[in-house]
């Protein structure tokens, strides 16, 4: 087990990030159906009927120390509205990636993503002592690229033909990062954005 990725609950005003477990399947399936993001060919969002296998896959990755997946729960009504994960973590070099993030349609363009990323970034920089956090997305996922940039992450480049997708196509991966000296300003920026949702 990668102790760098020990399970933890992260809680804010709007969301609670819970270590992913089988009990989240029903809520995640409902979230995946809201907005049908799985129909976008450039995302890794599971179809509602594939959520159980998706959760099992991430739980196996967690057991092997490869990822720390979370279910995103709204504090207001207790509903599960999405998924996110810490992955590609390297404790020796104090870096990790935040990815596999998706939300139900009802949670998009709300405080959910801002607070989710604030909680994960705070955990990465303040608790784990990271010097670098990465975000990666498909070249064609313009909404994701815009959302990552709005967090305060900087685009570093594009890894061309970086991954082979399930349909056999090649993914050009856009890489963003936040580094330790940038974290105080990014934190304040995210806190300011959350204040507008109060």
From TrEMBL:
Keywords: Ribonucleoprotein, Ribosomal protein, Transferase. It comes from the Bacteria. Residues 15-154 form the N-acetyltransferase domain. GO terms for cellular component: ribosome. The keyword Ribonucleoprotein applies. InterPro entries: Acyl_CoA_acyltransferase, GNAT_dom. One of its GO terms (molecular function) is acyltransferase activity, transferring groups other than amino-acyl groups. Pfam families: Acetyltransf_3 (PF13302). PANTHER family: BLL6696 PROTEIN, N-ACETYLTRANSFERASE DOMAIN-CONTAINING PROTEIN. This is Acetyltransferase, ribosomal protein N-acetylase. It comes from Dokdonella koreensis DS-123.
């Amino acid at each position: 087990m990668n102790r760098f990725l020990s399970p933890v609950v992260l809680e804010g005003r709007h969301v609670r990030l819970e270590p992913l477990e089988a009990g989240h399947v029903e809520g995640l399936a409902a979230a995946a159906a809201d907005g049908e993001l799985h129909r976008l060919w450039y995302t890794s969002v599971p179809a509602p009927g594939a959520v159980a296998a998706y959760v099992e896959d991430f739980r196996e990755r967690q057991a092997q120390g490869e990822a720390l997946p979370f279910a995103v729960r709204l504090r207001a009504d207790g509903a599960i509205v999405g998924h996110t994960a810490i992955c590609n973590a390297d404790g020796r070099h104090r870096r990790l990636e935040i990815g596999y993030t998706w939300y139900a349609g009802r949670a998009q363009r709300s405080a959910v993503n801002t607070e989710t990323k604030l909680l994960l970034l705070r955990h990465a920089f303040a608790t784990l002592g990271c010097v670098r956090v990465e975000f990666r997305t498909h070249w064609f996922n313009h909404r994701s690229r815009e959302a990552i940039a709005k967090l305060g992450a900087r685009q570093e480049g594009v890894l061309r033909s970086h991954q082979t997708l399930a349909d056999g196509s090649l993914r050009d991966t856009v890489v963003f990062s936040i580094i330790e000296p940038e974290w105080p300003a990014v934190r304040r920026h995210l806190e300011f954005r959350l204040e507008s949702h109060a």
